[in-house]
Amino acid sequence: MNPADPPRPVGLLRRHRDFRLLWFGETTGKFGSSVTSLAMPLIAVTTLHASTLEVSLLSAAGWLPWLLIGLPVGVWVDRMRCRPIMIAASAVSLVLLLSVPTAAHAGLLTMAQLLLVVLVTGAAGVFFQTAYTAYLPGLLDPADRAEGNAKLHGSASAAQIVGLGSGGAIAQLLGPVNGLLADAATFLISLCATARIRHREPVREAAPRRALFREIGEGLRLVAGDAWFRSLTLFGACSNLALTGYQTILVVFLVREVGLDSGLVGVLVAAASSGGIVGATLARRVAARIGTARTMLLFESGLSLPALLIPLTGRGTGLALYVLGAFGVSAGVVGGNVLKSTFQQHYCPPELLGRLTASSAVLNYGTIPVGALAGGLLGTALGLRPAMWILTAGVPLGSLILWFSPVRRCRDLPTEPMAEPKPPGTPAVAAAVPVAG
């Protein structure tokens, strides 16, 4: 918050101009990204007649940059100002997405181009997401961060619902390729909103510039050496493996196995994604009653069980099984993310937040390409429905990690900052003691 900004009542973030711009830009970008997440596999399946394995490669390509560049990006974000990084990442994504309809209308679109666009926009997303996560705590007062995270995650889920629904309608009315024009427009809006934010990060104290790999090591040691970060990261990695596995072949499953058209696929996925709004809305309220750690366990573990309904999806009333199953998963994931984001912003030293974000994301998102490839391989080898059974079963199984972590043994996640990290080469140690519940 700029010193020049007038005092603001705690909790009234709608009056916070810079937060409104960030909120609007991020929500708009999520809307466009959700259109793309549906449009890209539909383009591959209906326009380029891609195989199940090729569709899974497309999904894997979007997350592969986290494995390739995620760790150094965390260091670079900690060294640089975040807002210019976010603006540049949005501009790159805008140009690349416009190249797909341009090539398609010229009759030159290929699967190789789709893979390249997804790969490079994924790399831009690594920069944007890491910078955005490190930028938010400096924009908001500590007391407002929980509310800010809830608003951002809830709006992102709402934007995803509208994007998926409209993405299916656009694909049916105008063709899947034109869905990317909507996404390109949203990146332009997001870019303009971010550029109008007045908040400027304070000049960081000059620190000795150490070797890149040494600073990367600090981030990895922070995740590995702290029981809270380690548990949440391992859970995220296993959960994403299963989630991405079944979501990668979901469009193919609904179109080819269940027999739905593009428009209905978008409507169903949008309806199921509404669970994210419910999760974001209820997470803070439930946490206030039973504690943040217990709420995380409830959302991430209890609400993952309905995933087992998804493979039972069929035509007619059988479509409700997909909606119920995916609704529960969406509510659990988004609600858990609200709690996790707020916890990390309070618990992690600000000067290490970029490296923490990147290090945990590399491990969390690094399993996503593996899950995507596993989905394609299992769908090809065993068939789509058997593959869905195997992959959806992994969602509740992954939550067992939380049952053997400090999360199960306490009522609340730590709210005080962890002890200052020790000098390079010394593992970080958790400073908070779990409260018996």
Structure write-up:
This protein is mainly α. The protein is about 75% helix and about 0% strand. The chain has a single domain, classed as Growth Hormone, Chain: A (Up-down Bundle). The protein is built from 16 helices and no strands. The longest helix is centred in the first third of the chain and has 31 residues. It is globular, with a radius of gyration of 21 Å. The N terminus and C terminus are likely disordered.
Instruction: Give the end-to-end Cα distance, rounded to a whole number of Å.
Output: 37 Å
% residues in beta strands = under 5%
CA-based shape: globular
Mean pLDDT: 79
Q: Can you tell me the residue ranges where pLDDT is under 50 for at least 5 consecutive residues?
A: 1-11, 422-437
CATH architecture: Up-down Bundle
What is the tally of beta strands?
0
Percent helix range: over 70%
User: Helical segment tally?
Assistant: 16
Which CATH first-tier class would you pick?
Mainly Alpha
Number of domains: 1
- Sheet with the most strands, sense and barrel status: none
CATH level 3 topology: Growth Hormone, Chain: A
Cα gyration radius (Å): 21 Å
Query: Strand-and-helix sequence, N→C?
Result: HHHHHHHHHHHHHHHH
* Assembly category: single chain
Instruction: Provide the structure class.
Output: mainly alpha
Instruction: Provide the CATH superfamily.
Output: MFS general substrate transporter like domains
